[in-house]
């Protein structure tokens, strides 16, 4: 009998751009020293979870995060690990690499809101957000909503389905804040946009017969547990 299939979806560790308030998207910076430390704690907190396989996006910050976690895991060297470009962050086109204030300054105006807070209070849809990013992008690199939806859903669903077909169990996946939030909205349309997922937080999903169930969102207890383990050493 198959075990349940559970995805442990992790937002990558804190990066240089996260620290100075720049939009990353498909651009990339490495984890800071503090970011690495938190992910080491996360790895300690997850070290006894029986992961059957592990994945990350192909962005450097996600791969760096995955490697640190697997280094701390008691079976890390034996856990198959691969990358998948489908679970990358959204592409912000010409706004990639700019300060967050540029992205969250222009997008609300395009959507006829006074500011970011006004926009979030009115609970815009991810489709509206994607269309506004395309309108703001002067390089024509930003992705249409339909393309983001197809790649994000197929990426996570393929991983879950593959594990279910191979006996179930736990899968570790390192992805990105907006991508994880967007995936949750595809599972439960009543959820608000959750752009503020913490670096290193764990969002747990159960997958059975083609259906996802959301167990926990933005859980930082594994970091706390790992910090406690570190202090005991």
Strand order of the largest sheet: 3-2-4-1-5-6
- How many strands? 6
For the record, the CATH class of the largest domain is Alpha Beta
Mean pLDDT: 95
Please bin the fraction of helical residues: 40-55%
Tell me the quaternary state: single chain
How would you sum up this structure, described in words?
The chain is of the alpha/beta class and 233 residues long. It has two domains: 5-91 and 144-232, Rossmann fold (3-Layer(aba) Sandwich); 93-142, no CATH class. The chain has nine helices and six strands, in the order E-H-H-E-H-E-H-H-H-H-E-H-E-E-H. It has a six-stranded mixed beta sheet. Strand 2, helix 3 and strand 3 (81-83) form a beta-alpha-beta unit. It is globular, with a radius of gyration of 18 Å. Pfam families: His_Phos_1 (PF00300). InterPro entries: His_Pase_superF_clade-1, His_PPase_superfam, Phosphoglycerate_Mutase. The active site is at residues 12, 89.
């Amino acid at each position: 009998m198959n075990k349940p299939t559970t995805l442990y979806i992790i937002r990558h560790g804190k990066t240089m751009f996260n620290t100075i308030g720049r939009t990353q998207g498909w651009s990339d910076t490495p984890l800071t020293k503090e970011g690495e430390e938190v992910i080491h704690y996360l790895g300690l907190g997850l070290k006894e979870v029986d992961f059957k396989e592990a994945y990350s996006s192909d962005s450097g910050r996600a791969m760096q995060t995955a490697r640190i976690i697997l280094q701390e895991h008691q079976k890390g060297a034996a856990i198959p690990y691969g990358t998948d470009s489908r679970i990358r962050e959204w592409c912000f086109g010409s706004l990639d690499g700019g300060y967050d204030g540029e992205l969250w300054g222009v997008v609300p105006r395009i959507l006829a809101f006074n500011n970011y807070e006004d926009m979030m209070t009115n609970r815009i849809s991810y489709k509206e957000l994607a269309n506004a990013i395309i309108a703001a992008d002067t390089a024509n690199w930003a992705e249409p909503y339909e393309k983001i939806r197809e790649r994000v859903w197929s990426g996570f669903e393929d991983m879950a389905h593959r594990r279910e077909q191979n006996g179930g169990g736990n899968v570790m996946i390192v992805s990105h804040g907006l991508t994880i939030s967007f995936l949750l909205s595809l599972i439960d349309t009543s959820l608000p946009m959750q752009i503020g997922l913490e670096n290193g937080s764990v969002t747990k999903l159960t997958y059975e017969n083609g259906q996802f169930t959301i167990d926990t969102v933005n859980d930082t207890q594994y970091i706390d547990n790992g910090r406690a383990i570190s202090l005991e050493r």
